[in-house]
Every structure is written in C-alpha cells, then in structure tokens.
Amino acid sequence: MHLAAAAGMGAAEVGGEVLMEALAALMPGVDWAPVAESTQQAEREGTLESWLVAGTLVDPLARLRAAGEEEMTAARSVARILNLVGFLYVMHGLLMPDNPFLARLRARIDESGFALVVSQLVPQMASPSGVPHALAMCLSPEIAVVAALLEELIDEQAGAGQGLLSLPGAEEGGAGAFKQTWIDRLHELRDRGLDSVGEGGGPGSAVTAVPEP
Q1: For a Cys staple, 177 with which of 62, 137, 172, 211, CB 3.0–4.6 Å?
Q2: Which pLDDT tens digit goes with each residue over 82-96?
Q3: How far apart, in whole angstroms, are the C-alpha atoms of residue 136 and residue 79?
Q4: What string of pLDDT tens digits covers the 213 residues of the chain?
Q5: DSSP 207
Q6: Separation between Cα atoms, residue 60 and residue 31, nearest integer Å
Q7: What is the pLDDT of residues 156-203, one digit of tens each?
Q8: Predicted TM-score (pTM) of this structure
Q9: Cα–Cα distances in Å, from 20 out to 15, 25, 51, 70, 152?
Q10: Taking the CB of residue 147, how many other CB atoms lie within 10 A of it?
C-alpha cells in the first residue's frame, strides 16, 4: 500500500521513510540502509523528488551506463538464470506438472525472500521496455547471490543426470513428454468442468433440454 501511494502521489508526498519501508517489504533480502541514508539527506535538503527523478531509484539507464563490461556480462547471466527459474515458479500456478526438483526450487526461492522479484522478472524480460529495469536490478550483488544459489540447485540436478522437467514414474522423459502431460492435465480439468456443468442442468448448462414440438 505504501509503494502504491508513493507511485500515485509521489515520494515527496508520502515521505522517504514510507518509501523505504515499502521497498524493504518488497525486497527484504536487500540492504537498504545506504539508500535510506541518502533518502533522509535528500529529504532534509528538500530535494527528495529531484533525487528520485535523477535516477537513484527509478532510472535504470543511468545505472547501466555506469556499469562496466564485466558487470553487464554478469548481470545478463543473472537475468538469464532468474528468468528461467521465475518462469518455472510462475507456471506452477498455471497447473504445470510438478516434480521434486521444481518443488525444491520453489522452496529455495521462497526462503530467499525474493519470490516477488523473481516472479516479476519474467514479464519484464519479455518486454523491450522492461529489459533495462531487469538488467539494472540484476547488477545488485544481493540479486546475484540469489541467482547463484538457484543455479547451484540447477547444476546439482543436471549433475545427477536428471532433467529439470523429468516426471516421476513417467515412461518417457524430455520437454515434449512434459508438455504433453501438462496439456493432458488441462484437457482433463476442462472436461471435468464441462461434465459438472452438464450434470447440474442449471443456467449455463452444457446440455439444454429441447421441448418436443
């Protein structure tokens, strides 16, 4: 709510302290103390609004321009990892088949405190206007640590000779079999829903009785 208020009313209206509380709640794993100190100084000097507009928090291009080649290479690697695990994390909510590895991956994301960040990276990376924001975020050492922990889990799974999308007890493996299982599950739920509506016979029923002429 604080973050929404800051976005709608302006940080100068809600105050720097409220804005910092919102950001800390959004990304609890980040050390916001240095940013909070700069915010307080800008607030005392009456320059908070211009300080924000100048790009300290909201201008990703300024941060990207200041980054070196090695930093940008590392940020792209972090973004690639988080985009992959973010997709797997989000798709679980869309009935994607599950396996022990994916469950462990989600648990580690939740434990990191960056679940919201990882989830929101997916739509950012899919949009040209969102890529600079995602890359600027991935320059953060804290985000890089999270990516390293998740990559370690992926490497462990690959090292065990098991794919990321393997299904326990499945006769066939690979992405194709995983996708087909997902599609079959969606079709099963759809058919079950249609059968339930048809048996109900109420408004919107799939089966409508037509009177004899």
Answers
A1: 172
A2: 999 988 888 887 788
A3: 10
A4: 544 444 444 555 666 677 677 666 655 556 667 777 877 887 777 776 655 554 444 467 778 888 889 999 999 999 999 999 988 888 887 788 888 888 999 998 888 877 877 887 888 888 888 888 889 888 888 889 889 999 999 998 888 777 777 776 666 666 777 788 888 888 888 888 777 766 665 544 444 443 343
A5: S
A6: 19
A7: 888 877 777 777 666 666 677 778 888 888 888 888 877 776 666 554
A8: 0.59
A9: 9, 9, 14, 30, 31
A10: 24
Whether residue 23 contacts residue 3, with contact meaning beta carbons closer than 8 Å, is answered with: yes
- Length of the chain in terms of residues written: 213
Structure token pair of residue 15: 């105050």
Q: Are the CB atoms for 18 and 2 separated by under 8 Å?
A: yes
Q: What is the DSSP string of 27-91?
A: -TTS--HHHHHHHHHHHHTT-HHHHIIIIITT-HHHHHHHS-HHHHHHHHHHHHHHHHHHHHHHH
Residues 55 and 63: beta-carbon distance below 8 Å: yes
Gap between the Cα atoms of 107 and 78, Å rounded: 19
- Please work out, in degrees rounded to the nearest 5, the angle formed at the alpha carbon of residue 10 by the alpha carbons of 7 and 12: 140
- Return d(Cα 85, Cα 91) in angstroms, integer: 10
- The pairs formed by 165-170 with CB atoms below 8 angstroms and a separation of 24 or more are 165/97, 165/99, 166/99, 166/101, 167/97, 167/99, 168/99, 168/100
Element (H, E) at 192: helix 175-200
